[in-house]
C-alpha cells in the first residue's frame, strides 16, 4: 500500500504546482524502480485531484453549474471554459500515443521539464501586474490559447498548471486569476480523459479486487495533498513570481538528462 500512498502524495502535490506531475511520476518510477500501478490507479488518483479542485473552488463551481439558469458573468466564464477545452481535447487525443512512449524515457521527461522552465521564465518576465486583467476580463481568444497550452502539457515533463498559468500571464491575466482559470480548466480536461479510459480500465473489474484499498488510500492522499498544493500556490502567487518553480524545473530537467546519458 505504501507505494500507492507515495504516488498519490506525489500526484496531489505536483499536479497543481507548476513542476509537472507526469514528469515527477515518470522519474520516480524510473529512478526508484517503482512498478507503474496501471491505468486504474491513474484514474483513481486523478479523481482525487479532481475532488481537490471541486472542494477548493466549490463556491465558484456551484455558480458555474447554475450558470445556464442564472446567466450573467458565470455563464460567460462557463462558455470560456468550454472554448478552452476544445484545443485541449484535440491536442490531447493527437499526442496521447506519443506521450505514452515518451513517459518511459528520462531524456524526454528532462526535455519537457526544460521546456516548462523556459516557459515559466519567459512568462514571468513578460507579466505586468499593474496592468493585468481580472478573471472576468478573459476573452475567447485567451481561453483558446490557455486551452492550447493545456493540450500540449499531455507530454511528460511539461507542466499542465505551469503551461496554463504561463499562458494566462502572457494573455495579460493577474497571477492568481491565471491560476484559478487553470484549475477550473482542469475539471473538464480530467473528466473527459477519465471517461475515455473507463472502458479500458474496468474491462476486468475482478482483476483489481485485491487492490481497492490501496487505490482508495492513494486517492485520499491525492485529494488532501492536492488541496494543500492549490491553497499554497494561490497564496504564493499573490506576493511572489514563478521564478522559483522555473529554477526547480531547470535543475530537475538537467538532472534527468544527465541520468538519461549515464544509462545509455
H and E order: HHHHHHHHHHH
| Number of β-strand runs | 0
User: Mean of the pLDDT scores?
Assistant: 89
Q: Quick one: overall form?
A: globular
Radius of gyration: 18 Å
Distance between the termini: 32 Å
Structural class by helix and strand composition: mainly alpha
pLDDT under 50 segments (min length 5)?
Answer: none
Main beta sheet strand tally, sense and closure: none
DSSP strand content:
under 5%
Helix content: over 70%
Number of helices: 11
Structure description:
The chain has 264 residues and is mostly helical. The protein has a domain at 18-30 and 67-203 and 232-263. The protein is 79% helix and 0% strand. It has helices spanning 2-16, 21-31, 39-56, 58-70, 73-103, 106-126, 140-152, 160-170, 175-201, 212-239, 243-263.
